[in-house]
């Protein structure tokens, strides 16, 4: 399991790296907010652990940046003990909050809890909308029922885009975040790619491609997967 640890205190980075590696975790370290955001994009960690008071981008800005394209668990580890700081971080998208100083046993327990929550989501890989069923693990999509499926053939790039959207139901995924996730951070100006691939996905998956119900465009911002009402 890979953990991104972001903190501007080198002693904390060193202590957490040694402690967590001794327990079998793979650690990626970041010393400021920009490095943390870039690290999340480049290394795709299984959990992000970050401080709030970092240079370049503070922790809340990093949380917002990550939540634009990923639901990776985020554990805030901060010296800020005020209720307002905790609420701001959690409202931005953090999953849990630990205040400094902390015990290693408590920190490990929080990590285990967040990991269990993530595994529970990943154990239900089938997503259904309209007449379409998508198996994110098996990389299969089909119309109709499992007994009489009509296979939908998707290219690897179509799969990559679809998976990001489906794993974030109801959430706006910005164009830059989607381009970075699928093509890398040097292609954030290639928004024409997304229009082409989204049009192809709609032709294959939407009941009426010209009037999409599920794969929506948010003008000037990005895209959103809108599931059927519960």
From TrEMBL:
<dbReference type="InterPro" id="IPR001789">
    <property type="entry name" value="Sig_transdc_resp-reg_receiver"/>
</dbReference>
<feature type="DNA-binding region" description="OmpR/PhoB-type">
    <location>
        <begin position="124"/>
        <end position="227"/>
    </location>
</feature>
<feature type="domain" description="OmpR/PhoB-type">
    <location>
        <begin position="124"/>
        <end position="227"/>
    </location>
</feature>
<keyword id="KW-0597">Phosphoprotein</keyword>
<feature type="domain" description="Response regulatory">
    <location>
        <begin position="2"/>
        <end position="115"/>
    </location>
</feature>
<dbReference type="GO" id="GO:0032993">
    <property type="term" value="C:protein-DNA complex"/>
</dbReference>
<dbReference type="GO" id="GO:0000976">
    <property type="term" value="F:transcription cis-regulatory region binding"/>
</dbReference>
<dbReference type="Pfam" id="PF00072">
    <property type="entry name" value="Response_reg"/>
</dbReference>
<dbReference type="Pfam" id="PF00486">
    <property type="entry name" value="Trans_reg_C"/>
</dbReference>
<dbReference type="InterPro" id="IPR001867">
    <property type="entry name" value="OmpR/PhoB-type_DNA-bd"/>
</dbReference>
<feature type="modified residue" description="4-aspartylphosphate">
    <location>
        <position position="51"/>
    </location>
</feature>
<dbReference type="InterPro" id="IPR036388">
    <property type="entry name" value="WH-like_DNA-bd_sf"/>
</dbReference>
<dbReference type="GO" id="GO:0000156">
    <property type="term" value="F:phosphorelay response regulator activity"/>
</dbReference>
<dbReference type="GO" id="GO:0005829">
    <property type="term" value="C:cytosol"/>
</dbReference>
<keyword id="KW-0238">DNA-binding</keyword>
<dbReference type="InterPro" id="IPR011006">
    <property type="entry name" value="CheY-like_superfamily"/>
</dbReference>
<dbReference type="GO" id="GO:0006355">
    <property type="term" value="P:regulation of DNA-templated transcription"/>
</dbReference>
<protein>
    <submittedName>
        <fullName>DNA-binding response regulator</fullName>
    </submittedName>
</protein>
<dbReference type="InterPro" id="IPR039420">
    <property type="entry name" value="WalR-like"/>
</dbReference>
């Amino acid at each position: 399991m890979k953990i991104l640890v972001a903190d501007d205190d080198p002693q904390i980075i060193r202590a957490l790296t040694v402690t967590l590696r001794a327990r079998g975790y793979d650690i990626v370290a970041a010393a400021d907010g920009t490095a943390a955001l870039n690290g999340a994009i480049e290394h795709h960690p299984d959990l992000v652990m970050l401080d709030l008071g970092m240079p370049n981008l503070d922790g809340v800005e990093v949380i917002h940046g990550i939540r634009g394209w990923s639901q990776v668990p985020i554990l805030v580890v901060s010296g800020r003990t005020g209720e307002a700081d905790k609420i701001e971080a959690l409202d931005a998208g953090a999953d849990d909050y630990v205040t400094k100083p902390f015990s290693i046993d408590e920190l490990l327990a929080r990590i285990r809890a967040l990991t269990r929550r993530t595994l529970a989501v990943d154990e239900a890989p089938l997503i259904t909308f309209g007449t379409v069923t998508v198996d994110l693990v098996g990389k299969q999509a089909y119309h109709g029922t499992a007994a009489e499926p009509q296979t939908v053939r998707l290219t690897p790039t179509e799969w990559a885009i679809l998976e990001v959207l489906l794993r974030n139901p109801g959430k706006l995924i910005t164009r830059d975040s989607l381009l970075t996730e699928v093509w890398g951070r040097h292609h954030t100006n290639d928004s024409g790619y997304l229009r082409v691939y989204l049009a192809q996905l709609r032709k294959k998956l939407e009941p009426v491609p010209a009037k999409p119900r599920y794969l929506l465009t948010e003008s000037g911002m990005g895209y959103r997967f809108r599931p059927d009402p519960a």
